[in-house]
Amino acid sequence: MSRKKKVLLHIGAYALIIMVLFSLFSEQLSGDELVTVTTVTSQKGTFYEDITFSGAIDFNVKTVHEAPFFLEIDEVFLPAGTLVKEGDVVASCEGYQVEKSILQMESALQTMKNELKVLKEGFSGITDPDQKRALEIQIRLKEIAVEEAQADFDLVKQSFNENFELIARVDGKLTIQNLAEGRQVATGDVLFEIADPETMEAVFTSPASQEEYVKLGDKITVEVIVYKRGENLDWVRDNQALKLEVKSKKIEAGICTYKADIAPDKNERIDPQQLQVSMTLPTVTYSRLLPHGSIQREMGSSYIYVVNTVRRLFNVEHYVEKLEVNVMDSNEYYTAVSGETLTGYNIVYTANGPLKNGQRVRIED
What we know:
Layout: H1 3-24, H2 26-30, E1 35-40, E2 43-66, E3 73-76, E4 83-84, E5 89-93, H3 95-123, H4 129-158, E6 165-167, E7 172-176, E8 190-207, E9 219-229, E10 235-252, E11 255-261, E12 268-291, E13 296-298, E14 301-311, E15 316-330, E16 334-338, E17 346-351, E18 360-363
Parallel strand pairs: 1-18
Antiparallel strand pairs: 1-17, 2-8, 2-12, 3-5, 4-7, 5-6, 7-8, 8-11, 9-10, 9-12, 10-11, 12-16, 13-14, 14-15, 14-17, 15-16, 15-18
Helix pairs in contact: 3-4
């Protein structure tokens, strides 16, 4: 080969190497002319809706505590619905009145016992079978009357403390009844009933149209106001969010009623009227969800930039294409759009500069 041909061959080889290197590093050599972008792909997802229901706590009645027939209540200290513990002071009474009535009951009880004693002493001297049987019945009836009077007397004594204040005898819910309108006073009526705390239920309702969202066995969040026993034996308010399981539900008159078991700890009280149930419900599932930053808006239209890739002999180049999209819905984080053509596309999420249709870009790793 001649010297001239060798020189030309070397020049051609060097030129080819320079062209390859230029192509391979053309993006880097172009510097600030390329906009750097980050990309995402559309994804399938479900939108959810947070809803709340109001409710209350219900109990099954365990015992009814009647104010003694002679008693007038001066003041009821606790509002209806309060969870009371055994020994809690419920109401105040006039001390003289209570003490006098208790003494009268005690006197009447002692008279009945004396009468019973006389009947029993006379029983041994009777020999006639009919008279003896009649006296046996009379003695038994008197014994029953004494037992009832003794129970009433014991109950009344247990119902008051040393200050002649009416106290709760068992744990439960306080239900004020038959009070004079506008006054916390009762005379000879049922003062309060105490419900069984072990039968407490969280009860809430929703329109029947939402019944499908709440299923038996679902765990729901119930926000309640709880009062805890403090260091000074006072009750300190403490709001709590409890996870409860739905135990039952029924539909009546267009309303669905749900129930869930709920129980306070030993030193807790729950406000039965302050109950909020919060739930997260699935609404719609979309095939194309994009983060909000991917959506651009202009003149009432919404559009996105997708990245098209062109593979050349010695390099890969990226260009953006502007596509109009139809926005269907959005939530706090994502926008749902229509369009099957988005499948497989890298969609621009962020860019360090303005974009236009057909512009060449660099994809950030």
